[in-house]
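User: Please fill in residues for this 138-position structure.
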């Protein structure tokens, strides 16, 4: 039984580390911004657009708590990515996907920012999925 050990070139290792760092920074920053957006919604700030005929209608305070919770989790996962924790890569993809859905549902309340964060979280998912984990043997 032959085992194959894959060795990566230094350039590939550097790119992988850079993408993980990119995902960590973006997840932490975007999570912080979602936290603040959640606080604004809980306070019922006048920043949000009022859209009475939207299919996915939520109470602004409830929506604020959802955004705040997801933002806090994103920040924690971002910190885990700085430590190169494997759990953070797996949870990072999941929380970024949830945040894409949450931002899609909040498009009528804050349209430009929601679309911006959808694109940002898409890049985070890409960065976390492209990087291959380290081999068990080397």
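Assistant: Residues filled in for all 138 positions:
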């Amino acid at each position: 039984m032959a085992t194959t050990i894959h060795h990566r070139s230094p350039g590939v290792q550097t790119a992988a580390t850079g993408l993980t760092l990119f995902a960590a920074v973006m997840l932490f920053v975007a999570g912080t911004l979602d936290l603040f957006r959640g606080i604004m919604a809980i306070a019922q700030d006048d920043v949000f657009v009022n859209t009475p005929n939207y299919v996915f209608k939520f109470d602004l305070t409830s929506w604020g708590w959802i955004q705040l919770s997801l933002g806090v989790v994103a920040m924690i996962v971002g910190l885990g990515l700085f430590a190169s924790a494997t759990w953070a890569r797996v949870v990072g993809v999941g929380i970024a996907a949830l945040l894409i859905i949450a931002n899609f549902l909040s498009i009528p309340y804050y349209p430009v920012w929601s679309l911006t964060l959808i694109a940002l979280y898409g890049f985070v998912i890409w960065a976390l999925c492209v990087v291959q984990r380290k081999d068990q043997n080397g």
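For context: The helical segments are 10-42, 60-82, 86-105, 111-130.
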